[in-house]
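Please decode residue identities from the backbone states below.
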């Protein structure tokens, strides 16, 4: 069974994302665990894990749209190799922002709708369908084997809000010896580009204090990743699934 755990306080977003997963997972046995009163994403996800029954657990934001034609096949294929997967992440952590490591350490791809209605595909690194040795993941979509939760959980004490729970959890998994990967053939449009405001900074300090022994004493590089601007979802999907794979 696959358990999909979603924390949401927005009825419209929740209706859309739950319908999306209902369609994507129609061929398998699955359940939806909905949390509408989470004190934090870490607390809500931990509660969702406790209520779930699946051997695969998906943790999803409520503002994502799957554009891949198949979720089940890639999900099972990648979780045969990895214990925890996401769609964007890094093989090196330099601070609380996973992307700060820059190329050639960041991987994945995520699409966003830009103000003129076009789709911007941000390609952090997609040399193949999956990349291993990942030490930190973005949390817009995470999928994990249930066995992870025998050893680790989301840190609801340190991250009692809605930031940094994801890179912390995935780094915990890496440090505990689990295989963590970025997968490039599960493709989403994400409505949010992230907010690095004062609240985020508060949790960034907590992350960097907790993991200071793992952080190199370096200044993050100035860099740009690849991006492609397209008009329709089919074009975004073509960009995100190159023929050389």
């Amino acid at each position: 069974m696959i358990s999909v755990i979603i924390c949401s306080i927005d009825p419209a977003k929740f209706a859309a994302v739950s319908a999306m997963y209902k369609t994507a997972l129609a061929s398998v046995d699955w359940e939806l665990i909905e949390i509408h009163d989470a004190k934090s994403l870490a607390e809500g996800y931990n509660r969702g894990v406790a209520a779930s029954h699946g051997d695969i657990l998906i943790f999803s934001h409520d503002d994502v749209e799957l554009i891949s034609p198949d979720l089940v096949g890639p999900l099972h294929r990648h979780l045969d190799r990895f214990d925890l997967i996401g769609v964007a992440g890094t093989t090196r952590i330099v601070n609380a922002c996973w992307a700060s490591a820059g190329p050639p350490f960041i991987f994945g791809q995520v699409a966003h709708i830009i103000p003129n209605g076009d789709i911007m595909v941000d390609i952090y690194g997609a040399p193949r369908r999956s990349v291993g040795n990942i030490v930190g993941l973005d949390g817009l979509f995470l999928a994990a084997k249930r066995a992870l939760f025998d050893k680790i959980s989301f840190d609801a004490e340190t991250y009692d809000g809605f930031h940094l729970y994801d890179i912390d959890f995935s780094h915990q998994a890496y440090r505990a010896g689990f295989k963590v990967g970025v997968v490039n053939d599960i493709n989403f449009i994400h409505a949010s580009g992230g907010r690095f405001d004062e609240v985020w900074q508060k949790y960034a300090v907590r992350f960097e204090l907790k993991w200071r022994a793992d952080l190199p004493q370096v200044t993050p590089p100035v860099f740009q990743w690849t991006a492609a601007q397209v008009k329709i979802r089919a074009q975004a999907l073509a960009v995100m699934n190159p023929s050389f794979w």
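Observation: The mean pLDDT is 96.
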